[in-house]
Amino acid sequence: MISPKITVENLSIGYEDYAVMNNLNFEVGNGEIFVVMGASGCGKSTLLRTMIGLQDALSGSISYGGKNFNNAPEDEKSEMLRSFGVLYQGGALWSAMTLEENIALPLRRFTKFSESDIKELVNLKLALVGLRGFGNFYPSEISGGMRKRAGLARAIALDPQILFFDEPSAGLDPVSSRRLDELILQMRDSTGATVVIVTHELASIFTVADRAIYLDNKTRTQTAIGNPKELLKSGNADVRTFLNRGVDPLSTQDKL
């Protein structure tokens, strides 16, 4: 594997004195699509929020490009944050702004581009996600799948090195979900970005993941890591059951 873009060591996450997950250890390589999977309530979204600085870690460390994110001075942390792009579960678009205004917002805040350059970049980002010509539409005027793609256009506005997705397929029909998966693969291939995705959608996991980590809500730690297709044949029955929609094909009882 290429030297890791993200390194997580002995990480415990949770709220105040309650640890949702303990002793998480994994690396995400440059340009890799890495999926965080597990049953509902296992701490997937808590891990993502901790990785992007919305929540403090209880202990342990997260490093980006060899720099410790947790203990970095505010100016260094802000610089690292500007290298992130985040697509939240609901798209998180400003409802009172057009798609063009939503995507232009980070460009106006964090760059010194002229308005004409910003407009050109916005149109480019919209075209990349298949929304050319929709810049003047408001989020309420487009479908759920289009809102997710618009959210992705905003997430890539600043050409981030790392993209984070929180349940990107939530609320989408199978066709829209598949199109979003294909778009994520295209974004990674065209930009070289490292991608971290939180999801429990099996179709998406098998379509996009180079590797995945399984968070187990019984032991409150990670119990497997690897390519999802290889994990189907792993020695961990809970992981096999999760990846087979609640049925473990290697179980004698299930075979009977």
From TrEMBL:
<dbReference type="InterPro" id="IPR003593">
    <property type="entry name" value="AAA+_ATPase"/>
</dbReference>
<dbReference type="Pfam" id="PF00005">
    <property type="entry name" value="ABC_tran"/>
</dbReference>
<dbReference type="InterPro" id="IPR017871">
    <property type="entry name" value="ABC_transporter-like_CS"/>
</dbReference>
<keyword id="KW-0813">Transport</keyword>
<keyword id="KW-0547">Nucleotide-binding</keyword>
<dbReference type="GO" id="GO:0005524">
    <property type="term" value="F:ATP binding"/>
</dbReference>
<keyword id="KW-0067">ATP-binding</keyword>
<dbReference type="InterPro" id="IPR027417">
    <property type="entry name" value="P-loop_NTPase"/>
</dbReference>
<protein>
    <submittedName>
        <fullName>ATP-binding cassette domain-containing protein</fullName>
    </submittedName>
</protein>
<feature type="domain" description="ABC transporter">
    <location>
        <begin position="6"/>
        <end position="242"/>
    </location>
</feature>
<dbReference type="InterPro" id="IPR003439">
    <property type="entry name" value="ABC_transporter-like_ATP-bd"/>
</dbReference>
